[in-house]
């Protein structure tokens, strides 16, 4: 199933009759243009203005961009976004591949466990964040209870390393179930013939995993990583509720910094410039990923262009 | 094929024109929206919390006799000020809105969005004379009144756990040296001397507010807010910061305060369970503790004024906190007379009694005679005397400065406590606000 | 498939099970305790007291209305997505119009437009349209931001319909409309259920649009209700946990009764 698209011979276009025209795409396109493309143009324009939300925006040329280029918090936020995204991918990908292929087995205990693994997915990001915020209180939450065994003062959100670890862990707790599910689905559609052949060759579990399962999961890995990257770059609810970008500005990632500039400091010009940076980075990354992995060929219109 | 492409080009061009059109309209209607304000109603925006019951009752009473009806919009507390600034220059702006006076309304006055209340007060002088002058004046900008006091005053108080103090053989500190001595005794007993919700950042700010007042006197901040940022670099400012640093380094707040949150109930629980001895907090600490454990609060929650600092310039009776809450009126309102009549309710006996009953301390001149009807008369009297006798009542810095400065201020405040900024770093950060 | 059980994997799976369950356990036990009980005994201990106070307080605070609002938003968003996306995906797969590939590429790029990047203009768009503080104001942008991924998913699944089938329809002189209803829709059921699940989750969990675009209690959705719990005057953990639990109950019910559809739907996101 995963190979069928790329392997299918191209059809030299059939008759034009019976093919949908552009009008079929129009309602969705207009709708999307109104709420995404048009605001994007608005953001681009606003990044050259100064505006506090009161009165009218005034053009101020490149001021916002100059300010941003010299803004330490902004530069740090880019590194933090990259770091959190990378940590997310690096931890969730192996974890969810292992869990997913394990859960793909049809044994009863695996079915029960994977049903339970699913539970965090039922909670919204806001719910996950308030839940963990309460659990992480150093005196009355989990750190307090664990520190009586392991020592330490439970100051998990008080240091940069601790806060980043918490965000990474909570992200993994929340999103691993989704990716596990993707891999579980994909692993189940690996043709059993491949494993039977490997059994005949006397390959062990580990060998089979690396030479059959992993290569077969390639496309799913791409999809899953793209989802993680885009999701990681735009993480917002979790940071707002769990760390508020702190301690200090130690977990102020770009998406949160943009919110802070816009809705706490009311500097909509600079906020728009940050937003534009965010869009450009996210677009570039997904374009590169899509190109490198051949994802676009897999999904692009195959005929008639 | 070709007719299809031209069709597409037209479609794209059409979208682009539509796009530009909407953007332009968006910009032009964003300001001055008087014409499209709703008819026959006025919207009153309030900070959404448990205190809304009184506001609801007032609105109900008012609507019974008024042709123009009042609609109460409760905006969730945590988000109140952000929301307000986002909507105030749009057609969705409320006619009357809750605020903290001072810097919280100054940008709106500058943008010419608010109605000076001089005319209303001429119609009904009681709108001014019914309130304590120090409170009323905190919502005047350049001498022009823009706010009528509502709800109550919320001074910051040094709370303690009586049981813990008794066990340690100490009293609530009268002087800074007492405090440092108590910190040492408590630390030796394995108790966190002071509970601090550092994760929320604003509880940390309260320590600066009192330290700067006690060491440098109230004038330093007046100067700083007035635009003289050199005040932050003065000798007094450095002395206040050094003293504060001394307290932090003595371990007064423990080591994990950056992970503790007041909002999540962490720091109040520390105080209540005796794991900490003191907490510096707004007067609402009382109702917070009460809703968690009524009996404990009645028996064991102690309160006292902030200690004095020997040789400091501030008066021992000076207060910091939220001077009061105010209602301000926007210029664009269709019904200024209705707004005036609604505001008159704020000094009515009924309003004062209702506020006292839910634990808010009003600042009308009539308040004193109703104090015995308060939820907790002793606590209410303690606060009222404090406010009445205070030579200066410094509005919380994050309210006194424009809202746009508060995020950076909170960051600096937290970073100085965690040791990430030194005295010079903190001064530079405050000067950059 | 394998003869002997895989012990290492088994141990790993149990560790992950603990990581998943501990917070859930704390949440469940907290909801039935009083504030003092929770603070006194710590999160991992067995509950020492029992009370339903947290739930009754929640119900009387109007939390159920937030659940209803969220349900309205979710159903509407799914409705818009289901109406708009299939024709678009059909056009993407079958149309030979030149503009289509441009449109599809735009949607691919749209995947990378974070909602918060454009939230300020969207706020003004919604205000100008008079939709501020209304559920429609949340529904429209939420649906718009579901379109890219849903289009990607559905066009992927529609591509599995072999060209021969389309050609057979065309031979019979079927209009695009007829092919769409007779052939494409029936054969894309899997893909459509995937986009339903996906957009429903997006709408159910949406936070940023409600945060910026609404203000009053009558338009409050669950996620915002949870956030507002952290108001300045302090909260109680058991009450908060009860709210978290209540916020997941409707999804849990769907999960219990339509587990297969939900899981299959989500698997579909990565299926291609």
From TrEMBL, chain A:
GO CC, sorted alphabetically, is: plasma membrane
The membrane-spanning stretches of this chain are 21-48, 78-99, 111-136, 156-175, 221-242, 268-290
| Pfam families hit by this protein | BPD_transp_1 (PF00528)
Q: How does it sit in the membrane?
A: Multi-pass membrane protein
Instruction: List each copy of the ABC transmembrane type-1 domain by range.
Output: 74-289
- Where in or outside the cell is it found? Cell membrane
Show the SUPFAM superfamilies listed in the entry: MetI-like (SSF161098)
Q: What is its main location?
A: membrane
Q: What PROSITE patterns is this protein classified in?
A: ABC_TM1 (PS50928)
**Biological source species:** Cryobacterium fucosi
Q: Does the keyword RNA-binding apply?
A: no
| Alphabetical UniProt keywords | Cell membrane, Membrane, Transmembrane, Transmembrane helix, Transport
What are the recorded Gene Ontology BP terms? transmembrane transport
The family annotation for this protein states:
Belongs to the binding-protein-dependent transport system permease family.
Q: What is this protein called?
A: Sugar ABC transporter permease
Gene3D superfamilies, A to Z:
MetI-like (1.10.3720.10)
UniProtKB/TrEMBL annotation, chain B:
Reply yes or no: does the keyword DNA-binding apply. no
Does Glycosyltransferase show up as a keyword for this record?
no
The alphabetized UniProt keywords are: Signal
- Per its UniProt entry, which superkingdom is the organism in? Bacteria
Q: Which SUPFAM superfamilies match?
A: Periplasmic binding protein-like II
Signal sequence, renumbered to the chain:
1-33
- Write down what this protein is called: Extracellular solute-binding protein
UniProtKB/TrEMBL annotation, chain C:
Q: Which residues form the signal peptide?
A: none
Coiled-coil residues are none
Q: Which UniProt keywords apply?
A: Cell membrane, Membrane, Transmembrane, Transmembrane helix, Transport
Which SUPFAM superfamilies has this protein been placed in? MetI-like (SSF161098)
GO cellular component terms?
plasma membrane
Transmembrane parts of this sequence: 63-90, 102-126, 138-158, 179-201, 239-258
One Pfam family of this chain: BPD_transp_1
Broad class of where this protein is predominantly found: membrane
Q: Which domain of life is it from?
A: Bacteria
**Which ranges carry the ABC transmembrane type-1 domain?**
67-258
Localization per Swiss-Prot or TrEMBL = Cell membrane
Record-linked PROSITE patterns: ABC_TM1
Q: Which CDD domains match?
A: TM_PBP2
Q: Name one GO biological process term.
A: transmembrane transport
Q: What topology does the record note for this protein and the membrane?
A: Multi-pass membrane protein
Give the family from UniProt: Belongs to the binding-protein-dependent transport system permease family.
Would you tell me the protein name for this molecule? Carbohydrate ABC transporter permease
Q: Which organism is it from?
A: Cryobacterium fucosi
